[in-house]
Amino acid sequence: MMVKRRDRKVGLVFDDRYLFHDAGQYLIGYREKYPFPEPVPHVSSPVIAGRTKHLLDLFEISTVMDRIPAFEVEDDILLACHTPEHIARVTDIAKTGGDTGTGAPIGRGGDRIARLAVGGVVAAVDAVMQGRVHHAFALTRPPGHHAMADHGMGFCTFANVALAARHAQRRHGAERIAIVDWDVHHGNGTQDAFYTDPGVLFVSIHQEDLFPVGWGHLEDTGEDAGAGFTINVPVPAGSGNRTYQEAMETIVIPALHEFQPDLIMVSAGQDGSVMDPLGRLSLTTSIFRSMTHMLRDLADEICDGRLVIATEGGYSELYAPYCAAAIGEGLCAGLSGINPVEEPYGARAETMPPSRMIGLDARAALDAAIEVTRRHWRL
Q1: Which of 21, 146, 186, 206 is catalytic?
Q2: Rounded Cα–Cα distance for residues 371 and 348 (Å)
Q3: What integer pLDDT is reported at residue 146 of this predicted model?
Q4: What's CA 102's distance to the chain center, in Å?
Q5: Considering the domain boundaries, does residue 198 fall inside one?
Q6: Residue 294: what pLDDT?
Q7: What confidence category does residue 7 fall into, taking pLDDT thresholds of 50, 70 and 90?
Q8: Domain assignment of residue 112, given as a range
Q9: Is 146 one of the annotated active-site residues of the chain?
């Protein structure tokens, strides 16, 4: 049944304790301090989540959202994707702080915040699957899509979205779940968790061979019963808004429409933005709003609006909060009382070439992704 705009309910997960996640100093190769007299703060900064929440309040978006409380998950939820050894190691490391794997640092007591991040996405799934809201935005940290079964990776300690998807399968009986990952980096942890699972369609649009190196290739489409249920769309640096719009329209939306999921989830990194220090995709706020609109409209059509969007990466303290706020605006579009999120990059956001056209390299990448995806889905 189509969700009517006037009846739309949107949930928001945010907890001040997320701002206490301490990634410490930024290190060379995850090991050595930079040789400067002043410490270099980690790019995974609490400022970004705090500023995002401030913008949601400032543009009166949060006022029309229903608050969903996060909670610290117990081991039974974590064990759906992680080994007991990894869970125990994180608990032990949190006594003093340290790296939970490969570049996934936490501070003292950070295990509880990492569990709270998982619990935020799980709570969003519960609210959507129980019909308390149609869509939910989980503004959580630390991120999760790089976390592997037995170790943390790339700033991610536990696999937030993957664990929440497993929870939807086990607790709510969701038979088909679609996970769209538009982070600039490939969601290797999520892919690994569901690579043989035909009940989860995982789609990742990412900058090609950026991080982790060796993951997210076109031909990585799943194995055994899961063959075809992983779709990777690697695009070149500088691809921009038009390339992402085309990828959504020609690959993501048609594949999801054929899959007919019971629930759509998004790993919503903002690190593809034009100002991000760790990515080079030149995306602006409008594409985050647009992708949200597309997935929200699809969810309205095929799964009673059940859509959960969870934050992942995004490291520009100035710009990432605006991109995330645009996602919140996209979820709440049509509700009275909200104000449009401003574009801090100015007119250049829409006039620079990647916002207006698809470059030749990006066109070739999209054509190649379409060709591979057509082996399994009608596009």
Answers
A1: 146
A2: 33
A3: 98
A4: 20
A5: yes
A6: 98
A7: confident
A8: 11-373
A9: yes
